Amino acid sequence: MKQATPKGMRLHIGLFGRRNVGKSSLLNAVTRQEVSIVSPQAGTTTDPVEKPMELLPLGPVVFIDTAGVDDIGALGAERIARTHKVLERTDVGVIVTDGPWGPFERALHTQLDKGDIPVIVVFNKADRQTADRAAAERLAEQGVPVIHACAPRREGTEAFREALLAVAPADFLDAPRIVSDLVGSGGTAILVVPIDKEAPKGRLILPQVQSIRDLLDADASCVVVTEHRLHDALENLRTPPRLVVTDSQAFEQVAAQTPPDVPLTGFSILYARFKGDLVTQTLGTMAVDDLRPSDRVLVAEACTHHPVDDDIGRVKIPRWLQKRVGGELRFTTVQGRDFPDDLSPFKLVIHCGACMWNRRQMLSRILQCRRAGVPITNYGLVIAYSLGIFERALQPFPEAMAAWRRARQGDLHVRS
Ligand SMILES: Nc1nc2c(ncn2[C@@H]2O[C@H](COP(=O)(O)OP(=O)(O)O)[C@@H](O)[C@H]2O)c(=O)[nH]1
Ligand code: SF4
Ligand SMILES: [Mg+2]
Predict the structure, then answer these.
(1) What b/e sequence results for 120-154 when a residue is b if at least 16 CB atoms lie within 10 Å of its CB, and e otherwise?
(2) Closest ligand 2 atom, residue 356 Cα
(3) From atom 4 of ligand 1, which residue's Cα is the shortest distance away?
């Protein structure tokens, strides 16, 4: 399969440890695919196996599954040399042990530390209860994420994802672009910004300002209009815009006025990609179909002072969703850091674009939902879905669209 992201932009995760501790099994458990050979015989994985993939919700990564570094003999010496070479291209080092924390693990840890490479420690084979508890505690005290896992049962894989999010360098987490990659140098985007009573006085809001700046940085142009002037703007442009972006509140109106061959999306959807994970939140939107009257829905805003979003979150989204569901839903709205520890009562979480947050914060919420098994979507996605323009608003994002269609087919298959 073609991998679109260049290798240098992928987080390289090196799996290190003695033979047979379960490195390959752990990789399989995390990726849910049989990419490495799992064998009860020592040293089956001779060469480092590289597995590039999209690890939801973190983004593009490469797992490097190394051979055990404790191999002996001529062939073993060569393998050791290869494994050390892996260290040179490792962004995050995972030390896997099946219990002991001995000289070998300590030496690896020192080596990763010397290279300033963040470390995660996995005590695998938790089912055997052989973990060196004292060492695990010491490591945790030093601030090293310690995971107790049982790879064949896929236990510890969510905690592993969370640890990766915690230690991954910011450069890998922060999505590089808001919108300009969809427009390109020399292209034009039309940004639709309703100026109604809910718009803050005398200024634009952060997603609008940041989108304009992103377009200018990339040598693209933008035309900023209210929904009432969209028609004029479209008429006046000699070549059609490469993209129309609208405030989600005006989706319906803007979709009606924008020619079908002009790509259209919403600021909030752009931010699902920029601050969160568009694929995860797109798939989360499927849960709208499973909502039944009296189900509980959590609406979460990342900050406390946005009257426009307040109105969307408290009035418009509930209205649109209830119309779709055909009955009353029970909504809980939270703001800022105020996010429930127990998500289990909720059938769906609808999140704002989190423009005030960094991506690590938003991804950590997405992981919290994942762990609780509660789907999470986003304002713009849910509005587009409720209004029946979901696929249109997703069309600029082929990856999310493909994931959606695949999931839909699977879903239909299961239901039929
Ligand atoms: N009991 C138990 N066995 C495991 C666990 N993880 C892996 N194994 C087994 O340990 C053996 C070595 O696993 P493998 O992944 O090939 O280890 P590697 O050499 O570190 O890549 C295989 O027989 C696995 O089935 C675990 O959590 N518990
Ligand atoms: S963080 Fe969320 S609620 Fe606050 S302004 Fe941004 S999108 Fe609106
Ligand atoms: Mg292996």
Answers:
(1) bbbbbbbeeeebbeebbeebeeeebbbbbbbbeee
(2) 1
(3) 125
Residue-wise pLDDT tens digits, 339-355 = 999 999 999 999 999 99
Share of the chain above pLDDT 70, in %: 88
Phi and psi for 71 in degrees, rounded to 5?
Answer: -60, 150
CB of residue 353 inside a 6 A radius of ligand 2: yes
Ligand 2 pocket test target in 178, 205, 305, 306 with most atoms within 8 Å of CB: 306
Mean pLDDT of 107-134: 94
Question: pLDDT value at position 2?
Answer: 43
Question: Separation of 332 CA from ligand 2 center, angstroms?
Answer: 17
What is the three-class DSSP state of 253? helix
State the CATH number of the domain containing residue 396. Answer: 3.40.50.11410
**What's the 309 CA to ligand 2 centre distance in angstroms?**
7
pLDDT in tens, 272-293: 999 999 999 999 999 999 999 9
* pLDDT tens, residue by residue, 126-144: 999 999 999 999 999 999 9
**Residue that terminates a domain, selected from 269, 284, 304:** 269
CA 67 / ligand 3 centre spacing (Å): 6
Q: Indicate if 364 and 381 belong to the same structural domain.
A: yes
- Ligand 3 centroid, distance to 144 Cα (angstroms): 23
- Residue 267 φ then ψ, to 5°: -55, -40
Q: Which structural domain range is residue 240 located in?
A: 180-269
Q: By alpha-carbon position, which residue is closest to atom 5 of ligand 2? A: 306
Distances (CA, A) of 146 to 8, 128, 142, 164: 27, 17, 10, 11
From the CB of residue 103, how many other CB atoms can be counted at a distance below 10 Å? Answer: 8
Cβ–ligand 1 contact at 69 (below 6 Å): no
33 vs 256: CA distance, rounded Å: 43
Is residue 331 over pLDDT 90?
Answer: yes
Any ligand 2 atom below 6 A from CB of 275: no
Q: Whose CA is nearest to atom 28 of ligand 1?
A: 125
- Is residue 1 a part of any domain in this protein? no
Ligand found nearest the CA of 299 = 2
pLDDT recorded at residue 267: 97
Q: Which atom of ligand 2 is nearest to the CA of 353?
A: 7
